[in-house]
Every structure is written in structure tokens, then in C-alpha cells.
């Protein structure tokens, strides 16, 4: 009896700790800042990103629980049979509450919390939908595995073929909004930074292991209320794991992932310091149509903000149109949101949405589309 009671009390204590972590993120967003989630803090006991490593696939598509956080980030642009344009985001985040699992055999026990974001932009209707969920890595509620590949939170999931990584099936349901997509892949994994080692700051360990899949054809269905549409387009996936990223003095970042009509893909991020200056650890990469890539240091990318938008919901002011020049690639691009109102105001407040690209490449007109993420603007809470 005493052993049973002790086990029950332990399960209640562990469940209460996990519940409190979920509640703190879900019910008290004002207490959660980007810096507190991704900053240094107490890193004792966690694995650190200290230098390059060998990547192994499909193993690295799966989780890395020794690190404090990681994410699987899917975004894309879709077109319906009637020509309507949509953008989507389906993102899974894993956060460790402690460096190691707590002792005990309870099925409720876990030291891992999952958070997921699902967003859809209906450009023609000028509507932006977004939802946020939390669950624990227990009882099959949420988790990730490498082979067969799967990451999920309840009925939101990305699932690979049972015998291989590809194709992937993305599915998310929120009320009468349903996204169901099949993704294939055209280019090999892009190892960002130094062979996948992406430094974000000067301090040791403020870095991530980071790779991307920059061109994934997508097709499937999209359901909005009582309307079901056949859609097709292209997706992008960013994959990172780390224990600390941002350091003192860094406010956030602007991240751009662009797919150009000539088959090239361009990614760059600008780490912003609190004094408004550009952090020197900002960088980028351009991927040719054949999958070969070339790194772009921050000083190789000309950048100009052309307009701003202020959120009527939060009062946060975001940049809203940009001019980007890359002389080494003979690129001069203008990037504009397809819809201004693409702010996600949940446990973490940020702007992320579909953008269109126009400009010139070696004096020839070029177009494209992509996604932009703006983090750390407004009240840092």
C-alpha cells in the first residue's frame, strides 16, 4: 500500500510540474520572452553546441533530447486550382524541463514539453488563421522519432514513409481548418553555417546545429469551413537544435527563406542587437538549382527596409517591405508581404508570413515567393 501511495504521489508531483510548465506558457504569455526561452540561463547538464559534428540521416531528422530545445519548421506557398494563393506554417518545438528524465516508471512521467504552431494565410480573402498547442512527451500525446520519421502533437503531424524518409505527409486540423499535404524533395539537406554548426553569438555554446530542406514540391488539400481545395506549391523546412542561442545584447532576428523562379533558393538571417545594430554572426546562403550552395557573409547582402506595419492587436511595429541586393549573384530583389496581418500573438509573439519576390537577376526580370520571420519586436516581455 505504501509503495502504491508513494508511486501515486510521485506521479501527481511530476504531472503537476509538467502541467504548471504547460499552463505557464499557455496562460501567461506575458511571462515568456524570446530571450528567456532561447538565452543562456541554466545550461548545466544539457549538451552544448560547441563545434562542427557529423550529420547522419535519417537519424538527425529525429529528436535530440540531450539539448534543451529544438524545432521542425515547415513553411510553404500553395496555389489552388482557381489560382488563389495560400501560405502555411506548421512548426513543432521541443523543450526540455530538466537535463535528464525523472526517475520512475509512470507513463505520465516526462521531462519534455512539445509546442506546435499552425498558421494559414488566405491571400484573396485577406484572412490569417493561427493556432497554438502544447502537450507532453508522454502517453503518445506528442513526440518525435527518426525511423520511420514522425513528429506530432495530438492530431498535428509530419509523417514519413514507413520504409524511407520520403514522401512526407503533413496534417493539421483546427476546427473547420484542415491542411493535408504530401511533400517530396528535390535537393539534399543544406548544412547551414560551418558544416551545420551555426554560431549565433560570441559566447561558447551560443550556437545551433542547423540544416534546411529548401525545395520540397507540395500537393494536397486545404479545407476552409465548407470549402475543400486542391492545392500545390513548394515548401521549405528548417531544422535546429541547441541549448542556448541568443546572448546578452541580442534582441531577435529577421529570417528570410526565398524560392526564386529560376530554381535558386536564398536564405539569410539578420541577428539584431538591442542598440539597433546588426550582429556580426548574421549570415546567409544561396542554393543553386542543382543543390550546390555558397555561403554569404552578412556584408555580402545589401539590405534596406522600405516600409513598416503596426499591428492593431498588439501595437507592435514590424518592417513590412525590403530591398535586398547581392552583387556577387547579380541579384536585386524587392520582398513584400502578401498580407500585412500575419502576426502570431501566442506564448511567443512574432510575425511570420508568406511574401512575394520581384526584381532582377543579371538584368533579367525574376520573381519568386517565400517566408519571412520577424522575432523580438515590440515589448520583449
Distance between the termini: 47 Å
CATH architecture: Beta Barrel
Tally of helical runs: 2
Q: What general form does the structure show? A: globular
Strand count, sense and closure of the main sheet?
Answer: 13 strands, antiparallel
Which segments are poorly predicted (pLDDT under 50) over 5 or more consecutive residues?
1-31
Task: Please state the CA-atom Rg, rounded to the nearest Å.
Answer: 21 Å
Number of strands: 23
The sequence of SSEs as H and E is HHEEEEEEEEEEEEEEEEEEEEEEE
Portion in helices: under 10%
Average residue-wise pLDDT: 89
As for the number of domains, it is 1
User: CATH superfamily assignment?
Assistant: AttH-like domain
- The CATH class is Mainly Beta
Task: Label the structural class.
Answer: mainly beta
Strand proportion, as a percent range, falls in over 45%
CATH topology: AttH-like fold
